[in-house]
Structure formats: C-alpha cells, structure tokens
Amino acid sequence: DDPAVEAAGISRFPDGIDTDVNNQDFSLRCITPGESNTALAAQCLACEITDLSAGTQTPCDPITNTYTQEVIVSYSNPPATGNLIVNGQSFPITGSPQTVVLTNLPADGLPVDVTAAFSDEASCALTEAALFTAPGGCSEPRSQVVLLALNGSIRLRQGVDVLAGDVIVNQAATGATLNDDVGGAELYVGKRANIATGYRAMADDILMKTDARIDGEAHYNALNDTAFGGTVVGSRYTPLALPVFSSLPAFETGTPGSNDVVVAPGDTRILAPGPYGNLTVGDSATVVFTGGVYDCREIRAGTKARLVFQSLTRVRVAERVAVGRRAYIGPGTGAAIDASGIIFFVNGSDGNGTPLTPPPAVDVGNRSEIQANFYAPNGTCELGKRTNFTGAVLAQHIDVGKHAHLRAANFFGSSAFGKVAASGGPAPGRPNRSLTPRSIRLAQNYPNPFNPRTTIRFYLPQSSSVTLKIFDMSGRLIRTLIREDFPAGEHRVTWDATDDAGAPVASGVYLYRLQVGSTALVRKMTLLR
After folding, report:
1. ω into residue 33 within 30 of 0, thus cis?
2. Which of 179, 203, 237 is the last residue of a domain?
3. Per the count of CB atoms within 10 A, which of 171, 273, 303, 438 is most buried?
4. How many Å separate Cα 465 from the centre of its chain?
C-alpha cells in the first residue's frame, strides 16, 4: 500500500523479495530478505538494449579518408552511472532512443557491424551485423590535389583561378620560398586569385593579397587575410597537423639513351617507347607518344609545339622540361585517357642545383594548354601566365603565372600506371592492349566547373554491371545516371545538371559515384550556373 510502490506501477513482487523505499527520492530498489538497502542484490527491472538502427552518414572526407555515421540506440532501464559505448566510442547516457555520432570511421566501402553496451553493465549489450556500409571511393585522400608543394612554397599570382582541386604545401618550408619578398609564407594567394568552393587551401602559413578569395576551406597554422583585404569564404581550420600527407606517390627514375631526337619546326614525329637522349621539338612541331615508358635526358619544346599522347604514358626525365609559349601537352584526338594518364617524372633541380635559381626544373610557357601531371621533387615548376592547366603538379616549389586556370585530374588515385609495360611496348605479333584498362577507373569530369552539361568517363577491364549516381554534399541522391551492363573499355556519360525528376539543380559541388560490383569510386564536380 506504499504510495511509492503504486507510483512505480508495480503491484506485486516475486516471492522472496522485500522492498525498501528511500524516503528522499522515492526510488524503488529490490533487496534480498533481511538485507538493508545498502546491500543491493539486484535491480527490479533488467537493463535491455532493444534496437540499433542507422541514421545519417556523411560522404567520406578525401583528406582524412574518414566519414561519420549516426546510430540510433533504443534501450530500457539503463544503469544510473557510466556511459553508452558504441563500437568503442563513449557517449553520456541521455535517454532512449539515443542518437550517437560515430566519428573518424575508415571509408573502406565495407559493411560495418555495430555493438552497443553500457560501461557499468557490460551484460546489457546488443550487436547488429552489417548495420550500415562504409562509403567507398575515398581511399586515396590525395586524389583532389591540383598543386602539392613538398616542403617548399606555392605562389598563385594575380588572377589565378583554381577551378577544381586542393592547393597544399605538405610541410613547413625548410629554406627559401617563392614568397620571401612578402614574409616567406608557404602559400601566397595573389590579388584577385581564387580557390573554388569544395576544395582546400592547406599550408603552415597562408598570405592573401587584395581581393584574393578562398571560397573553399582554409587549413593553416598562420593566416594573414586581413592586411591586404583577402577573404576566406569557406570554413577555417587551425591548427594544421604537418605533414598533410605522411606518404607520397613513388617517384620513378629511368636511364636515358644516347640517341637524341630532333623534330624540325612544323614536322611531326611518332615516338615509340624506350630510352632517348635529349628530345627537342621545334616551333609548331608535333611529337606523338604512342604510350608506355619513355626515358629522356631533357625535353625542350618550342612555341606552339605539341606533345600528344595516344595512351597511358610515363615520361622519366633525368634533367629538365622546358615548353614554349602556346604549347599543347595532352591526349590526342580519340585517345582513351585524360590528364591523369600522362605523367612526367622530372628528376632535375633548379639552376646549378640551388633551389629557386633559373632555369626551373619544369618551365611551361605562357598561354599553353596542358593536360598532364608533373612530378618534380627536386625543383620548381613554373606555369606561365594564362595557361590552362588540367592535371596536377608535385614539386618543391610551384609558381603559377597571372590569370592561369587550374583543374585537378591527377594520377594519385589511379592504378593506371601499373598498366604500362616497363619498356619496349607490345611484343611483336601481339595486340596492343594498352587501351583496355586492367582495373576500374573513374576520370575527372570535363569540363569542370561546368554549365549546364559535363561528361563523365569511366574505364572497365571487363564486361560489368555499372551504376553511376550523383549526390549532393549532404549525401542526398540527386540522379541515377546509369544502371546497366557495359562491355570492357572506355565509356562516356553526359549529365545535364538535372535531377531524377528532370528539374535543374542549383549551383554547387556534387559527388558522382561509380559502383562496379564491390568497387566504388567517387569524385567531386562543380556546377556554376
């Protein structure tokens, strides 16, 4: 007849159990006969975790290769002390149903088993197998990089427009920088230069000049964006742990041959893979690289010269690369590659070996069109003013001339370079299979940014069932572009910036996800209306 018992909603207790009511808080406890309430034997109502369900999942972060996942935990009669533990992460007990957010989960594309338990009552637990699946396609966090200075500096001169790609100085500078005249910041964003929404500027020290904009994220330990009127539109993150990337792509060196190749002005030369001495390409001359591995001592190309590539190619240069004004480097017409399938490994240094002395290790003339990757770990890469560059640059220092346009299409996330024979090209009497990839690859869309249409290319090593979907940055499905079987080879799909209902979508950054069996690949693209 005790009112506390009635209030607890319990009309009868099991035989052999007495009750005791604390007159201060009217909490109900069960004790064995003859025991006081200080010798608690058991709780009347057992703790139980009744359900686990998956909530919202964020897309994977290409820098950290991680994502977050909500899990909703339903339970009854939790312990009065301790925490709720979900897959090793601890949360205060707040009440059922409780939503927790698991952080820093690896984006490996695999199903995830989830176990929830209470720290002070370990027997009160529940496990759900494969409660959700991790996002895939973010396994290569460097895949969005367009400029990566190793432990030097980057200078984006006036009006440079980074349309797509991260701009990163991997380490604090260890010596002189391109920006010593303005205080030695590792990353200099010049007057009216811009880094697009959806991408990152990352450096130990960032200096922004008048009307410079970082529309994406800024990651730094020191930032000067006020002295000259620069603007960070996106989020700011500090401090920045260095190095940004603890590992870098393997650098390749080759052994040049003794035969020099000279292509006279206006002429065309088809070049098979193999070792060469110096390669000199005259004004308005063309060299066609058929694909494979080329070893050269030095490459010099004149005004309006063209270096054209038919398939996946590595060019290993012992010294330097110099390209004149209005030159073209990139895929040939109809080639089944993009900029990520062409890489120059340049082993030379600047000047006489002293950093930042002329000539640079890689020198690209003004108003050139470049669709390739340059990897020059010992020197500087200079991109001339008004150059249109699609690809990526890795170098000690990177100097980008005025009003250049940059888009990322790099080789970091591609397995393409395992597909090229180390020397010689196809064996006699055998077909050249270099155009059929040996693994699945998803290329950067082109153009990017775009309005209103863009083309997405993907490569299949064999006939496969393919799904290609468009998501916004919150993970919401926008459009299923394809869900059908495709033969081996290269395939192209066009997106017209509409959703599944045919309605135009807004400007912004979108994700496109290719699913082939258990393999999932993801890239970003930017719509600018």
Report:
1. no
2. 237
3. 273
4. 25
